[in-house]
Amino acid sequence: MATETQTETGHLLVFTIKAVLEKRASKEQLAQVLESSRKGLDEQVNDFQGTIQEMAPEMREKVATLVQGAEEVFGFLEAALGDIASYLENNDENLLYSAGSVVRRGTEQLNFIFDELRNFVLAVSGPTSIPNLNLMIRAHEVFVPEKDANGERLKEFCHAERIMALQSLDSLGSSEQTPELAALKDVWDSHLRCMNRMFAAIEKGDKASVNKEMENAKISFARLNERIPGAVLSQRIDGPTPSEQVNLALSFSKDVGAQSLGDGPLVEVLAGIHTSSEELSAGLDQMLEAGVESVMLREAMDRALQACDYQQEALADFAEFFTTRLDVTLRSARRKLEESTIQLSAALDNLSELSEREGKVACMRCGHFNPGGRNNCEKCNMPLPNLGQSAGSTFDHSEENVGTPAIDPEQPVLTGNLVRLYTAVNQIFDGSIDGDKFLSEVEWFQGVIDKNSEYEIEEPNWEALSEEERAQEEVGFKAMEEAQELFGTGVTEMNEALERMRGYLESEAREDLEEALRMMDAGARKVAAVGNAAKQKRK
Fold this sequence. Notes:
Blueprint: H1 3-21, H2 27-54, H3 57-62, H4 64-90, H5 93-124, H6 131-143, H7 152-173, H8 179-204, H9 207-237, H10 244-257, H11 263-290, H12 295-324, H13 327-357, E1 361-362, E2 369-370, H14 416-430, H15 435-452, H16 467-507, H17 510-531
Antiparallel strand pairs: 1-2
Helix pairs in contact: 1-2, 1-5, 2-4, 4-5, 5-6, 6-7, 6-9, 7-8, 8-9, 10-11, 10-13, 11-12, 12-13, 14-15, 15-16, 16-17
């Protein structure tokens, strides 16, 4: 099969078409190349058919798919040459554009088919399943009995392997390393050393060393054959999305777009994505139909379903590309598949997190959300708040029993108002209330703070006091000033905590709620400490 000749002819024709369209070549030059291409195509078709007829029936059956693919490409090329001939008669440049694209794509596809056919023939004719190794074994068999006294054929194949090894090592060196690629790099390095030793032994005529390295080559070829698929796959599945299957599809689609890979592998991967997406969508629909009480869970499921729909839209674009072969359609399909997969992964992560934290209670010290029914935080062991208890308002102060109240540092400060706020925090976290309800609770507590956040102390009439009375009053007044400052700091911390809670509605970041709870408890402790520590007047 004269693949190299046809490749050169195809490239020359494509080059000439481009030159004609750019007004750098004449129609007469194109006509000459067209005539040469027709003869080349006829020769290649006859050569190909003769090669297939010479095969044993069982081998022809095994390569039937490749033969059918080649015959289809031959048909496309024949039609393209007809379009070029029509252009030469009627000057329709659209025909020339279309024909050039078909010739370029058809030439690459034939090269791929012929390479596959060659490798298959070499593999099935043995003695191994590795085509290049089979070539070297045959060349070695000819060299040893001195039919090829200088071992030129074996040296040629050996040198080709050296070049391939060097190119592969160079490529692997510039690639992001995975364990599979690192292991493959070691095998290529060993293979290169083996080929270098064999090449040197051939040039010296050292047949004993050649025989030894031939055995080593069988080992290195086998190791490469074992390592390459996994390494290539590891490179393809490492991509822009969290889904290895989607990354593989995106990688395949690049090769399909560059016409270095047939549609088959991409179609197979896309079929798997389609099935997974449909199954996920059906499962989410079933859960929603059964009833989901949590508002946030329903919202997360809706986002996941929207991402599934977007993913199906991407798959529809791929299907359109397989029909139209338009690059713009392929680019659109790739972009949509990448975006939809990232969106779907984020929605599913959020859904998983919401499902895990339903019914949990927040710790006032570390912010960790604990399973219901626990008395102490599973992270820091602090007693958890009993949100069902009744207590007075955070800002209820009494003029009686002036002094610092006993506040247990191991217990969260809980009052009726704080219990109501903390209950809302737990509910927004587990999804049992929506953002509007949570925000209304936050704003309600903000109103409580605003109403009670002014703290004034009455300054004594220093001129009316005796020296002894003045000294006693100064001590008390200083204590009240310190209490005023502590109260103000506590109110500031509580306001900042509420701002964090508002921010959670946008960020949905667990850290925002955790920090808000710590700040709220710290502020509440300061306000509670002041509550019964001084006389106060609120306006």
